[in-house]
Amino acid sequence: MADVIDIDDPADPRLDDFRDLNSSDRRPDLPEGKGLVIAEGVLVAQRLLDSRFEPISFLGVERRRVELADDLDGVDVPFYRTSAEVMAEVVGFHLNRGVLAAAHRPPPLELADVLEKSRTVAVLEGVNDHENIGSIFRNAAGLGADAVLFGDRCADPLYRRAVRVSMGHVLRVPFARVPDWPRGLEVLRGAGFQIISLTPNPSAVPLAEAMTGDRVAVLLGAEGPGLTEQAMRATDIRARIPMAPGTDSLNVATAAGMAFYERVRTAS
Ligand SMILES: C[S@@+](CC[C@H](N)C(=O)[O-])C[C@H]1O[C@@H](n2cnc3c(N)ncnc32)[C@H](O)[C@@H]1O
Q: Which atom of ligand 1 is nearest the CA belonging to 222?
């Protein structure tokens, strides 16, 4: 059982891993700073405990500790018990989920290892919005996509907001970087993946016709610019989700969810 330690001084240094979570230069989950991962809420904390991420400590109110009691059984890290007011002072804002977990970032997974176990992957280019990244992971988990891969210019998937929006699935769905972007897509091709650029461009093939591979990688781009021409040229086919008249595109996480669903519908 995690050791329960009562703390009522917000300045207590044992709480430093949870301090100033909204600070752009001091927050503990900056990769180049303390490099921690922060999970918010009971469900996300449970997913953290069920993942490869190693918890360091928990901070929360008594009610949330009770809700987590079974999950914390046998977990040998401190649970700092405090009030909602002290938590708000420490993290810098009112946090209505009532519990936080801090964990170490494990070493990144190798692309080859992730691909070996995957049949359906999303590959992101320039997706720099944490909420969109979180939603893509949630969709991947819910619709059975195996992994998320990162090309150039993407936001940190382990930032607190991405972790929260993913409902903790970013801690469980494997992810890896594709080096040497976009030439590195060759590694996917070598592993037998059909590589599909998802683009709303009307000249692209409807997705339902385009997705034919036994192993499939769908490339998704940023809000605004979409995929670069260079990245699309490195893929096998350009595919679109047909849009209603008078509309131009879907949110990237919505498009990812539809592509994952198309895969569920068609892959045997
Ligand atoms: C908001 S869209 C970007 C729109 C951008 N103007 C473009 O032309 O790609 C963000 C990403 O979602 C995906 N996407 C959005 N709508 C889509 C659609 N109808 N068909 C296929 N992919 C779509 C694409 O991967 C796109 O790069």
A: 10
Question: CA 182 → CA 50, 112, 177, 191, 253, distances in Å?
Answer: 33, 16, 11, 16, 21
How far apart are the CA of 58 and the centre of ligand 1, in A? 39
- Domain closes at, from 42, 77, 104: 104
Q: Give the pair of three-digit tokens for residue 78.
A: 């401190």
Domain that holds residue 78: 4-104
- What confidence category does residue 34 fall into, taking pLDDT thresholds of 50, 70 and 90? confident
Tally of domains within the chain: 2
pLDDT of 95? 83
For atom 18 of ligand 1, the residue with the nearest CA is: 200
Q: What is the pLDDT of residue 65?
A: 96
CB-CB contact of 199 with 172 (8 Å): no
Report the candidate in 218, 208, 194, 204 with the shortest Cα–Cα distance to residue 262.
208
Reported as a pLDDT band with limits 50, 70 and 90, residue 90 is very high
Whole-model pTM? Answer: 0.95
User: Residue 146: left if φ>0, alpha if ψ -120 to 50, beta else—which one?
Assistant: alpha
Residues 165 and 217 in one domain: yes
* Residue that finishes a domain, picked among 61, 76, 104: 104
